[in-house]
Design brief:
InterPro entries: PqiA-like. This protein is of the alpha+beta class. It has helices spanning 2-36, 46-62, 68-94, 101-113, 116-121, 123-134, 137-155, 158-178, 183-221, 226-249, 285-293, 298-327, 330-333, 336-344, 351-374, 395-417, and strands at 253-266, 269-283, 378-379, 383-389, 392-393.
Length: 423
C-alpha cells in the first residue's frame, strides 16, 4: 500500500510540477505576445502609421491616372481659378483709391500695355499645360518624394524620436529572445508553442485529478480495513498539499481584451490593423496576494492579508491539524486548537468562498467585457471594427476546486476513522 501510494504521489507531484512550469511559461508567452501586439505598438504607433501612409503615398502617386472626363472637368476648374485670379489682380491695380503717383503709373501701365482679354484667351492653354504636368510620370515621382519628405519632417522631433527609440529597443530585445526578425514570425512561433502548452497543461491537469480519484477509490475499497486507514489518510493529506500548492501558484484566470480587426479606407486605400491587444493579465491566487500586500493603500493590504490568512494559511493549518489529530498522542489530538482546525475551521475558511468568488468574477467580467467590446463593433462601409475577448479560466482553477472538494471529503472521512473524540 505504501509503495503503491508513494509511486502515485510521486506521479501527482510530477504532474503538478509540470503543470506549474507550463502555467508560468504560458503566462510569459502570452505576456510577450500581448506586449508585441499591444495597441500602443499598432494602432497608436507612429512607426505603423508611417509605413502604411508611405505605402498609400507611393501607390497614389504611381496610380494617379486622370481620365478624359476627369481632365475636362479639372480643366474647367483650373480655368475658373485662373480667370478669377486675373480679375482679382486687375481689380486691385485699377481700383479708384490709387491716388499716389506710383498707383497712377501702375494703373496707366495696366490699361495701356496689359490686355487682360488676351490673357484670358490663353487660359485654356495654361490649364491644359498644368494638367499635362500633373499627369507627367516624373512629376508624380517628385510629388511622392515631397509628400514623404513632409512625413519624415513630422517624425523628426525629440519626443517622437525618443518614443521610436524606446520602442525599437524593446522590440529588439523580444526578437532576440525568440530568435525572430519580425512580429509576424514572433506571433506564429508563440501561437504554435501556446497550442502545445495548452494541450500538455490539460493533460497534466487530468492526470492529477485521476490520481485523486484513485485515492478516493482506495478509500472505498479499503473502508473496512481499519489497519490501513492511517496510512491512507496521511498519504491523502500529502496529495491534498500538492493540490493546494499547484492551485495557489498556477494561473487561475486570464483577462484578455483586444480589437480583433480594424479596417477603414484612407485615400482610396484600405488600412487594416489586426489583433490589437487592449488589456492582458494572468494571475494566480498567490500573485494576487503578493500584489495586494505590496500595495501602498491600507485597504488593499488588508484584503491581501485576509486572502493570505483564509485561503492559504487556514487550509495549511487545517490539513496539518487533521494529521496531528489522527496520529498524535491523545493529549495533543484533544488540544482545542488542533480540534478546531481539524473539524471546525472549515466554516471559517474562505477557500470555497474564493472559488465561488472567482467564478462570479469571471462571469461578471466576461459579461462586462463582452458588453463593452460589443459597443466597439462598427460594421460600416467606411469603417469595420471587430473586437473580441479571450478571458478564460485556467487549469489552476480546476486544481483549486479539486483541493477544496478533496479537503471536505477528508474532513468527513476523519470523523469516521478518528479514534479520538471528534465532537
Amino acid at each position: 500500500m505504501i509503495i503503491g501510494l508513494s509511486l502515485l504521489l510521486i506521479g501527482e507531484g510530477y504532474f503538478g510540477y509540470q503543470l506549474h512550469n507550463l502555467s508560468e511559461r504560458q503566462e510569459h508567452l502570452k505576456k510577450d505576445y500581448a506586449d508585441m501586439n499591444n495597441i500602443n505598438l499598432g494602432l497608436f504607433s507612429i512607426d505603423q502609421w508611417h509605413d502604411k501612409v508611405q505605402h498609400i503615398i507611393n501607390h497614389q502617386a504611381k496610380t494617379l491616372n486622370i481620365s478624359a472626363k476627369e481632365k475636362k472637368e479639372l480643366q474647367k476648374e483650373i480655368e475658373g481659378v485662373i480667370i478669377a485670379l486675373i480679375n482679382k489682380a486687375e481689380a486691385l491695380v485699377t481700383k479708384p483709391e490709387k491716388k499716389s503717383i506710383r498707383g497712377k503709373l501702375v494703373k496707366f501701365a495696366v490699361k495701356n500695355f496689359v490686355n487682360t482679354d488676351t490673357i484670358k484667351k490663353q487660359v485654356p492653354g495654361i490649364a491644359k499645360g498644368i494638367i499635362k504636368k500633373i499627369d507627367n510620370p516624373n512629376n508624380k515621382k517628385q510629388l511622392s518624394k515631397m509628400a514623404l519628405k513632409e512625413l519624415d519632417k513630422f517624425e523628426q522631433t525629440e519626443v517622437i524620436d525618443s518614443i521610436l527609440t524606446a520602442n525599437a529597443i524593446a522590440i529588439g530585445k523580444v526578437y532576440k529572445k525568440y530568435n525572430v526578425t519580425s512580429t509576424e514570425q514572433l506571433n506564429q512561433k508563440i501561437k504554435a508553442e501556446l497550442k502545445h502548452i495548452e494541450t500538455a497543461t490539460y493533460t497534466y491537469c487530468t492526470a492529477m485529478l485521476i490520481c485523486i480519484v484513485v485515492v478516493l477509490a482506495l478509500w472505498w475499497i479499503f473502508r473496512k480495513r481499519k489497519a490501513l486507514h492511517a496510512i491512507l489518510f496521511i498519504m491523502s493529506l500529502l496529495f491534498a498539499f500538492i493540490l493546494l500548492g499547484v492551485g495557489l501558484t498556477a494561473s487561475m484566470i486570464e483577462v484578455d481584451a483586444r480589437i480583433n480587426a480594424l479596417d477603414f479606407v484612407l485615400l482610396g486605400q484600405h488600412i487594416t490593423f489586426q489583433d490589437q491587444v487592449l488589456f492582458f493579465q494572468s494571475k494566480s491566487i498567490l500573485d494576487v496576494v503578493i500584489i495586494l500586500v505590496n500595495g501602498t493603500a491600507i485597504d488593499s493590504i488588508l484584503v491581501g492579508v485576509l486572502i493570505l490568512v483564509f485561503s492559504i494559511l487556514f487550509p495549511i493549518m487545517k490539513l496539518s491539524s487533521t494529521g496531528i489529530h489522527l496520529l498524535g498522542k491523545k493529549s495533543l489530538a484533544e488540544n482545542k486548537i488542533i480540534k478546531y482546525f481539524a473539524f471546525q475551521s472549515g466554516k471559517w475558511s474562505m477557500a470555497d468562498v474564493i472559488v465561488i468568488a472567482i467564478l462570479m468574477a469571471y462571469i461578471g467580467l466576461n459579461g462586462l467585457l463582452e458588453n463593452q467590446l460589443h459597443q466597439l463593433n462598427v460594421p460600416a462601409t467606411s469603417l469595420t471594427l471587430l473586437s473580441t475577448h479571450n478571458t478564460a479560466l485556467q487549469p489552476g482553477y480546476i486544481i483549486f476546486i479539486a483541493f477544496v472538494l478533496f479537503g471536505l471529503i477528508l474532513s468527513t472521512i476523519l470523523k469516521f476513522i478518528t479514534p479520538n473524540d471528534a465532537s
